Structure formats: structure tokens, C-alpha cells
Amino acid sequence: MSHAARRQPEPAAAKPAAGAATSAGDTLRPVDALEVERDASAGIDLAAAPPKLELQPLNTNVSLREQAYAALKQAIMDADIYAHREEIRLDERQLSQALGVSRTPIREAMSLLEQEGFLRTVPRRGVFIVRKTKKQIIEMIEMWAALESMAARLATMNASDEDIGSLRHMFDEFLSAAPAEHIGEYSDANIAFHQAIIGLSGSHLMGKTIENLFIHVRAIRRLTISRADRAARSIIDHMQIIEALERRDTELAERLVREHSLNLAAYVEKYCDFLD
Questions:
Q1: What is the pLDDT of residue 132?
Q2: Domain residue extents for the chain
Q3: CA pair distance 205, 216, nearest whole angstrom
Q4: Positive or negative CA dihedral for 152, 156, 157, 163?
Q5: Closest-CA residue to 194 (of 255, 244, 257, 248)
Q6: How many angstroms separate the CA atoms of 202 and 151, rounded?
Q7: What CA–CA distance (Å, rounded) separates 275 from 83?
Q8: Residue 62 phi/psi, 5° resolution?
Q9: Neighbours of 247 (CB within 10 A)
Q10: CATH fold of 36-129
Q11: According to the model, what pLDDT value does residue 44 have?
Q12: If you ran DSSP here, which 8-state letter would residue 227 be given?
């Protein structure tokens, strides 16, 4: 018998590790009864398995690829991608069921998102939402600090008094109670505040430039805001930033916004080893 004829038996497939997806039909891990694991170095609770993306059926009267792209991108941005140790795995079949369309627009949308750096394909394993290393996260926060501080500078020159004043109302409900008592709501207000500063700059290009950073910086802000009294410190920083904007103090507003984000970078450097 020739060597070509003597085919070696295929090695048995490795058993999936605990907490890993068990079949191609698994889009993401179920979130019921999540086992929570506390990170000893940062005191941050990390869910043992990733959540499901929140998706709604698409409108069939509009381009399905564009709708699928927009829906998936928004769902990725809304997902807490660092609140658990496993990467979030996507599955075409379940995504097509969730959105109510065939797999073709799903596949096309995922290809676009991969080109933009939101997804990555692992041969024989599937498609995953991209997670960044600690070093990459710090670099992103530093970039955010540079862009948002410039946005604050532009806001002192371009934004109306009414628009700047609207920033105060974002925190009205937290002035009579500690932010830590409503950490979920405060986390949302915190993220909206930073988005609003970018918007007040009046620069459309800046908003587009920062978009791809936003998914990761927002996820880290949400994860860390409840740690080490950061929420209480955060609202003080926000009030000082608003006052500088109201006074049209360009240099101070720019500096306060930059320092606020760089403080987050320093926190990640010191306490977020779980990102590696």
C-alpha cells in the first residue's frame, strides 16, 4: 500500500474549554445565572460569559445590507465587551433570525465591520467582536483625551450658551444623591456628557474620527466608573468642566477635559491587568 493510501486518522476534536461556545449555532453565551468572577487586582466584577447583542428585525423596504450594518454596529457599541473574560462570538444563523433577514446581508455587514476593525475572523472558530489589550486601550484613551480636549476648546468658541447650559441638566438627578447610588444611570449620563462635548465642538470630522475609539473607551468608562469612588470624583470634574465652558475659558476647559481622560488612562494602567 502506498504512503498516499495510508491516510492517518483525523485527530479527535478538542473538547471546548469551560465557558466556551459549544457549537456553531451558539451566537453568544446565555446570560441567565451568570457566574461572576471578581478580579483581585482591580476589584471589578467580570461576568464569566458574554451577553447577547440586542437586535430588532429590519425594515425590508430599505437596503438590508445597510440596515444590518447599522444594527450590528450599534449593538456592538452597546455591548459591554470588557465586562466578561471571553470574547463575544457572533453567528450568522442566529443573527439572521434576530434581524429577520437572510444570511447574505448579515455576511456583507460583518465583512464591512471587519474592515473597520470592529470584528475579526478566526479560522475554524468564527467571528468575534474585537477586544483591545490594556496597552491599546490606554493609547485609545490618550487619543480620546487629545480629541475631546480640542473639542472643549472649540466649544468655548462655537457652542451657544443654551447648548453649554444643557450639560448641567445631565446631572440634575445626581446632585441630591451620590452617583454611586444610581451607578447605572450615572454611567449612561457620564458617557452622554463626553459625547456631548464632542458634539459641541461643531466639528463633524472630529465626531467621525472618534467613532471607532468610542466603542472601547465607553466600555472601559462603564466598567470602571463604580470603582474606587471614581463616580464621585467624576461628577466634580464634570461640574468644573461645565463652569470653564460657561465662562468661555478656553485654556482651562481644554486642560480640565484632557486631565479628566488621562486620569482614566492612569487608572487603567494601574488596575486593569485583566485586559491582558
A1: 92
A2: 36-129, 134-275
A3: 19
A4: positive
A5: 257
A6: 8
A7: 10
A8: -120, 160
A9: 12
A10: Arc Repressor Mutant, subunit A (1.10.10)
A11: 59
A12: S
Give the amino acid at 119: L
User: Grid coordinates standing for 99?
Assistant: 434581524
The model's pTM is 0.73
Return all residues near 138 (Cβ < 8 A) that are at least 6 apart: 265, 268, 269
CA distance 152 to 148: 6
Distance between CA atoms of residues 226 and 186, nearest Å: 10
First to last CA, the chain: 51
Q: What is the dihedral of CA 95, 189, 148, 234, to 10 degrees?
A: -130
**Residue range 237-259: mean pLDDT, rounded:** 97
Q: What length does the chain have?
A: 276
Is the CB of residue 92 less than 8 Å from the CB of residue 114?
no
- 206-228 burial: b if 16+ Cβ within 10 Å, else e: bbeebeebbbbbbbbbbbbbbee
- Residue 202 phi, psi (nearest 5): 80, 5
| Residue 186: closest CA among 175, 196, 198 | 175
Please spell the DSSP secondary structure of 162-185, one letter per residue: HHHHHHHHTTGGGSSS-GGGGHHH
For residues 102 and 32, which has the higher predicted lDDT (pLDDT)? 102
| Range 134-275 classified under CATH 1.20.1250.20 | no
Whether 15 has a pLDDT exceeding 70, the answer reads no
